[in-house]
Amino acid sequence: MGEWYLPVQASFETADQHTRAYLSHQANRLREQGIRVSTVVGVSPVAESIINYAAANGVDLIAMCTHGRTGLARWTLGSVADRVLRAGDTPILLVRAR
After folding, report:
1. Phi/psi zone of residue 6: left (φ > 0), alpha (ψ -120 to 50 degrees), beta?
2. How far apart are CA 8 and CA 10, in angstroms?
3. Residue 46 and residue 59: Cα distance in Å, rounded?
4. What does R_g of the chain's alpha carbons equal in angstroms?
5. What is the pLDDT of residues 1-46, one digit of tens each?
6. CB neighbour list of residue 81: distance below 8 Å, 6 or more residues apart
7. More confident residue, 73 or 30
8. Ramachandran angles phi, psi of 57, nearest 5°
9. Which pLDDT score is estimated for 7?
10. What CATH fold (topology level) applies to the domain 44-98?
């Protein structure tokens, strides 16, 4: 069990570090433009986490990228943006990812 667990844990920690570095970089780019930005990293169902965070912190707009998947791809992969749009009360700005 230990042989299996350690690589998974190391992969999780690496992914966490990359995620935090990416978000820090993007937040700094927005701050340079005078935009107030905060970032949060967590491990939980994504759409539910976004909705709960927005409600708990008085967020007035959620900006998200969407891949614009349709059909089978959307059915199999799901759509976080769609779930946040349908289940949340906060206005959402959706931008198609490149």
Report:
1. alpha
2. 5
3. 16
4. 16
5. 444 454 566 688 888 899 999 999 999 999 999 998 889 898 888 8
6. 64, 65, 66, 92, 94
7. 30
8. -115, 15
9. 55
10. Rossmann fold (3.40.50)
